[in-house]
């Protein structure tokens, strides 16, 4: 299989004819909604005119085929020499030649004969797949951890994108998530979680904290709450609030199409993740009016966020869930202080109610004042014979993050909470707010440098220790 992009999967013919079958995928956000199957020809073949290239020194044209073959012959001779010198037997034999598959015309035309539409459940798993005339071509049902227990199809084409919309590898029997493979029969991963330090109380091999009906794992690097939920028969906002640990006022604040909390339409799609929504998050601020969809990532150094903003190479809406960059935010003295304040606010009445949430702002002041403060703290340490930069207020993410908001939301289990630090990088903040009107959105700018980016630093804490 070939994966030239996230939108295309191709399979070359095994007979060397150059034929290629491929599948094109179409997404709405992160959800696969349709695919088209097509074929093309002449893959790997050369135009006859491609065998000669112009000589930059003005000599005769260079024959690409013979030149490449000469270099290959030299390499083969070198390998044979090594075997001979060390007395290794048998000496390898080679059968390279100058033959190639020329064609007089290469049009690159393709034929697309079939189109399919995916109809997923709330976990993104493909339940029904219909063809271009609306007939059901494939129907699947799953056990809790993804193993298929019902599969019906009406033709020879079986989509491999099944549980969670991920690709099932028929040769290994595992499902590929990006960072690793999942064995759905035994509900374990085939390797450890790259973010296992974030979940010290959990096995690095377990899937979605053993709660696959609520959580999904987008890429095999730690479970995450779904960002959206499709209303099922019998649902109301009270049930959905308890299921996802999000208060009813927050759900209504994120979903403008809810007019009555007790009257929801079956099939209606709701936003259910307050921290991961970059457009309508009910608290924390730092909203992106152009794009609501965030992408989970690992930041190994907090400076990457600032440098990437200047160069225009960072993720526009980043949900930072791991790496030393996240640890530096978690260990920042100002963040720890705010987290303790939020915990006290949540437990002030002696109860921890799933979905209740609180937020606080933080502002470090202007840059000159911070530099002066840092030097003053360092000088006091020097006078006492101590390390001048240990626990210094400026030896922190303060110059990358600056002002921020932080929220704490009690999860549905009533024992843990989601903590989120909200921040953004904009042209105005880059100039320490000395300019106005200079902010540019990523989608509305031709050049990505210094365009606005938005960050969520996200982690869970245990409220009942």
Question: Which helices and strands, and how do they pair?
Answer:
Blueprint (H helix, E strand, L loop, with lengths): L1 E4 L2 E5 L7 E9 L2 E10 L5 E2 L4 E2 L8 E2 H22 L16 E2 L6 E11 L5 E6 L4 E7 L5 E6 L13 E3 L4 E3 L4 E3 L4 E2 L38 E3 L6 H8 L3 H7 L14 E3 L23 E4 L4 H9 L5 E6 L1 H7 L2 H14 L10 E6 L4 H17 L14 H4 L2 E7 L5 E10 L1 H4 L22 E10 L3
Parallel strand pairs: 5-8, 19-20, 20-24
Antiparallel strand pairs: 1-2, 2-3, 3-4, 4-9, 6-7, 9-10, 10-11, 11-12, 13-14, 14-15, 15-16, 17-18, 21-22, 22-23, 23-24
Describe the structure.
It is a single chain. The chain is 20% helix and 27% strand. The protein is built from nine helices and 24 strands. The strands form six sheets. An eight-stranded antiparallel β-sheet has the order 1-2-3-4-9-10-11-12, with no helix packed on it. Strands 19-20-24-23-22-21 form a six-stranded mixed β-sheet. Strands 13-14-15-16 form a four-stranded antiparallel β-sheet, with no helix packed on it. The chain is globular, with a radius of gyration of 28 Å.
User: Sheet with the most strands?
Assistant: 8 strands, antiparallel
Q: What fraction strand? A: 25-35%
- Which parts are unreliable, with pLDDT below 50 for 5 consecutive residues or more? none
- Cα-based radius of gyration, to the nearest Å: 28 Å
Strands, total number? 24
How widely separated are the two ends?
A: 49 Å
Order of strands, main sheet, comes to: 1-2-3-4-9-10-11-12
């Amino acid at each position: 299989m070939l994966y030239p992009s996230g939108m295309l999967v191709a399979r070359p013919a095994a007979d060397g004819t150059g034929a290629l079958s491929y599948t094109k995928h179409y997404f709405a956000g992160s959800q696969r909604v349709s695919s088209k199957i097509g074929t093309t020809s002449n893959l790997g073949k050369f135009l006859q005119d491609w065998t000669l290239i112009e000589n930059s020194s003005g000599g005769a044209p260079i024959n690409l085929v013979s030149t490449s073959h000469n270099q290959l012959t030299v390499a083969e001779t070198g390998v044979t020499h090594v075997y001979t010198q060390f007395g290794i037997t048998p000496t390898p034999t080679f059968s390279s030649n100058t033959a190639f598959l020329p064609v007089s015309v290469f049009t690159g035309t393709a034929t697309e004969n079939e189109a399919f539409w995916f109809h997923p459940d709330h976990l993104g798993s493909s339940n029904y797949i219909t063809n271009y005339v609306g007939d059901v071509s494939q129907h699947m049902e799953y056990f809790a951890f993804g193993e298929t227990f019902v599969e019906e199809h009406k033709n020879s084409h079986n989509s491999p994108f099944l549980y969670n919309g991920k690709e099932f590898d028929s040769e290994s029997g595992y499902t590929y998530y990006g960072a690793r493979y999942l064995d759905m029969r035994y509900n374990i991963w085939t390797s450890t979680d790259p973010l296992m330090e974030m979940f010290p109380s959990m096995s690095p091999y377990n899937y979605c904290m053993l709660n696959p009906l609520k959580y999904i794992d987008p890429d095999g690097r730690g479970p995450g709450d779904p960002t959206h939920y499709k209303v099922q028969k019998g649902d109301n906002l009270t049930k959905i609030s308890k299921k996802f640990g999000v208060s009813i006022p927050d759900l209504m604040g994120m979903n403008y199409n809810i007019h009555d909390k007790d009257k929801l339409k079956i099939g209606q799609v709701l936003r259910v993740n307050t921290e991961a929504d970059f457009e309508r998050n009910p608290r924390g601020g730092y909203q992106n009016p152009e794009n609501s969809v965030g992408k989970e990532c690992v930041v190994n150094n907090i400076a990457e966020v600032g440098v990437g903003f200047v160069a225009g190479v960072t993720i526009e809406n980043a949900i930072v869930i791991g790496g030393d960059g996240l640890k530096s935010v978690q260990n920042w003295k100002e963040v720890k202080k705010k987290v303790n304040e939020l915990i006290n606010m949540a437990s002030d009445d002696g109860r921890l109610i799933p979905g209740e949430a609180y937020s606080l702002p933080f502002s470090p002041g202007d840059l000159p004042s911070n530099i002066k403060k840092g030097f003053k703290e360092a000088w006091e340490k020097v006078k006492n014979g101590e390390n001048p930069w240990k626990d210094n207020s400026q030896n922190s993410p303060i110059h990358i993050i600056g002002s921020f908001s932080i929220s704490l939301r009690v999860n549905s289990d009533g024992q843990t909470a989601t903590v989120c630090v909200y921040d953004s990088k904009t042209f105005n903040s880059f100039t320490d707010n000395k300019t106005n009107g200079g902010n540019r959105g990523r989608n509305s700018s031709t050049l990505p440098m210094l365009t606005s980016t938005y960050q969520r630093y996200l982690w869970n804490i245990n409220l009942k220790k």
